[in-house]
Amino acid sequence: MSSTSHSDLHDLSLAQLAAKLKAREVSSVEAAQHFLARAKAHDDLGAFVDINEDVTLAQARAADAALAAGNSNAPLAGVPIAHKDLFVTKDFPTTAASKMLTGYQSPFDATMVTRLADAGCVTLGKLNMDEFAMGSANENSAIGKVLNPWDRTRVPGGSSGGSAAAIAARLVPGATGTDTGGSIRQPASFCGITGIKPTYGRASRYGMIAFASSLDQAGPMARTAEDCALMLSAMCGPDPDRDSTSLDTPAEDFTLRLHDSLAGLRIGIPEEFFGDGLATDVRAAIDGALKEYEKLGAKLVPISLPRTELSIPVYYIIAPAEASSNLSRFDGVKFGHRAKEYTDLLDMYKKTRAEGFGDEVKRRIIIGTYVLSHGYYDAYYLQAQKIRRMIADDFQSAFKECDVIAGPAAPTVAWALGGKSDPLANYLADIYTLPASLAGLPGMSVPAGFGEGGMPVGLQLIGNYFDEARLLNAAHQLQKATDFHLRQPATSAK
């Protein structure tokens, strides 16, 4: 194995890097040092919130030792990744990008962290996000904004904006993200990378700081569908002893069907995803990607998801209601931020939460508490749950006519920093990702071209329950026919 420097490691996909590590053409320590150096060189992006070189290099040395001894069958042995700061980690602080968790160090790792470590991954550090995963622009972080590597005057999307920006800028080959209402798919679209949210319950939520428990789901973000398939294979599987929402569905190798032909695949095109709110530049890119699918043998089928527009009010009742309950544990008593001056316990609660939470988090807690309060539960929360069931039924009706549903991941390309200061404008930008989240369906975003200002556009693919392999196959075949996923921001070449 050569000990010379490898200056182009960041140009490799996660799968390519894994192959080189397995072949001993590069060491895990070399790879880790290379990406740590890049993270430092591009710290102005705001993507990383914590790095610990000693921890990372110790993990890399252990991976090298296992590979050298021939003791590692781990599919991702020695591959460096990073985790969204919503996953607790015993070797790195976890803040959920909030002042409320300043200084918190978990005594255990989240299941997703453990499973990826078991697959051989080395942790580079923790990635920035919207506070408690609440936001669509990564402007709600108490640690600082994240910039889009394609244009640093624009947002990277949220809430997994740090993960998306780090991958797009080639600071890390893969990362974890979480998706409650589109927080993997929308930033993947804005940053020109690939990301997938699996079926709700396929990936354990243990150790993932809860926002909305019936919606939150972990998933991988990377350059390619193949990379995501490798990571997702390690992430999925039952976790019944630690996560009551974990499904009893066996782990699966999602790489096995990547090369299947798309001949005869029925792709549903929902009319509601192509209305007046869709920007013309985004529509042009999506139409181009759909034509590529037709060339690959797929058939486009018009479908309807009639309750799409109701997904926004339904989501912004259910998610805040669950958040108001989940975030009640952050009160300054046992861990995290506590107000310095207070008169009694109630005053300590009030001042701690007023100081510790950001504006968007407070807004959602207040909304959630309101809709759960006496006299409003039936009128708002219960009605929202009924409509949620109807939205899920709409998808099941559509899947009788198609195998996969395709459309835009977001109505526009990434907007300017501070460009949507009105909270409602941010909420409306989630129109295409919310329905699949409410239904618990798997969905992903795949690079599909470029729009206004040369900014990336993502194609959203939605599958039926447990059909992640088909989604990844469709995404992989599109990536074999196009090169959008290979293009990179000019800044990442430095």
CATH topology: Amidase signature (AS) enzymes
Helix content: 25-40%
CATH superfamily: Amidase signature (AS) domain
Shape: globular
Pfam families: Amidase
InterPro entries: Amidase, Amidase_CS, Amidase_dom, AS_sf, GatA
Catalytic activity: L-glutamyl-tRNA(Gln) + L-glutamine + ATP + H2O = L-glutaminyl-tRNA(Gln) + L-glutamate + ADP + phosphate + H(+)
GO molecular function: ATP binding; glutaminyl-tRNA synthase (glutamine-hydrolyzing) activity; transferase activity
Describe the model:
One of its GO terms (cellular component) is glutamyl-tRNA(Gln) amidotransferase complex. The active site is at 84 (charge relay system), 159 (charge relay system), 183 (acyl-ester intermediate). Heterotrimer of A, B and C subunits. This protein has one domain (9-312, 383-493): Amidase signature (AS) domain (Amidase signature (AS) enzymes, Alpha-Beta Complex), CATH 3.90.1300.10. Strands 4-6-5-10-11-9-7-8 form an 8-stranded mixed beta sheet. It is 36% helix and 13% strand. The chain is of the alpha/beta class and 494 residues long. A hairpin with a 5-residue loop joins strand 10 and strand 11 (456-463).
